[in-house]
UniProtKB/TrEMBL annotation, chains A, B:
Gene: recR
GO terms of biological process kind: DNA recombination; DNA repair
GO molecular function: DNA binding; zinc ion binding
Protein name stated in the entry: Recombination protein RecR
Metal-binding found in the keyword field: yes
Organism ancestry: Bacteria, Pseudomonadati, Bacteroidota, Cytophagia, Cytophagales
SUPFAM superfamilies hit by this protein: Recombination protein RecR
Length: 202, 202
């Protein structure tokens, strides 16, 4: 694609480096910014740069934070005896939005993936293991996506966590999602949802 | 959606103002930038701000340009007797990519749309009409998308352009696109493609 201006070519080039944004979408975004007020672009550029350069991570749970300790870890009202282990900050936001969880988190920063060269030492696993002794932690919930890499990570973690006596390990429930149709569910999910069936309380 | 950091909330807010980007995509983009090198964000923010604040428009054809006259208008080898009128800079790029057009352009900056409050005076129509007298222009091609607003704009323009004697007005060919199946074409397109059929050269 040839551009009538070097400036727009650079902007399109940088925008199309973002995931899921190709050259055509990037051009549409660039032309949108050109049509909008200059303020729109200025505040977008500033917000991005500010986020990248000023963001800090919670020293306890490795989630994004504006301070040394994130608002969840600093909250005395939350249940600090339950830690939910997730791979990504997005998962923290997703679980927080359910308003069903009152414990704290631990963000691994990814999953073990030999293909992409991510080993246990690239994740915050050591930090998680160091968090448990001399703490009030009684349960670790493994809330990792059930992919090949996710299951490997969960298996590795449960092996490591077994050494801590008095700490329960659990995983999030697998089964048919709400509104899901039985006949369209894959066999493994359907099979597990029968094995792990829950008795109704009368 | 609740965010663990004001910085990320601002960045997501600004990103989701872009067309076609919702909160979830914006969050994915923001987290991508956080994971990538700081350089990525710095050069993206700089490219966007530079584009918005330093870009100029060609004084002749109103396309994007790095100088007072764009590279197409300044090119002596192009056919300055043919002007292709388009609504948007994107159309210039699209036509240039076909490598089938050797004339010059005129970018209207939109189409007449009473619903969105865009009248003829909001477009560069006066500038187009002022370009024609005392120039070598012999043909004006109306290459405007065949939507309701586009057709209104084309009709308005052809009424105005009729006053100039010796200037031909043409529109881009309508018909079945390459690779298109006859049976799936809409009736208006198919009807026009028969009315405007082209005799083969033996």
């Amino acid at each position: 694609m040839e551009f009538p201006s070097k400036l727009i070519e650079n902007a399109v080039g940088e925008l199309s480096k973002l995931p899921g944004i190709g050259k055509k979408t990037a051009l549409r975004l660039a032309l949108h910014l050109l049509k909008a007020e200059t303020d729109t672009t200025a505040s977008l550029a500033e917000a991005l740069a500010k986020m990248r350069f000023e963001i800090t991570y919670c020293q306890t749970c490795h989630s994004i934070s504006d301070a040394e300790e994130c608002s969840i870890c600093a909250n005395k009202l939350r249940d600090h005896s339950t830690v939910c282990v997730v791979s990504d900050i997005r998962d923290v936001i997703a679980i927080e939005n359910t308003a069903q969880y009152q414990g704290v988190y631990h963000v691994l920063g990814g999953v073990i993936s030999p293909i992409e060269g991510v080993g246990p030492s690239d994740l915050t696993i050591d930090s998680l293991l160091a968090r448990i002794p001399d703490s009030e932690i009684k349960e670790v919930i493994l809330a990792i996506s059930p992919t090949m890499e996710g299951d490997t990570t969960a298996f590795y973690l449960s092996r490591k966590l077994r050494d801590f006596e008095g700490v329960h390990i659990s995983t999030i429930a697998r089964g048919i999602p709400m509104g899901g149709e039985l006949e369209y569910a894959d066999e493994i999910t359907l099979g597990r949802s029968i094995v792990d069936r829950q008795r109704q309380v009368r």
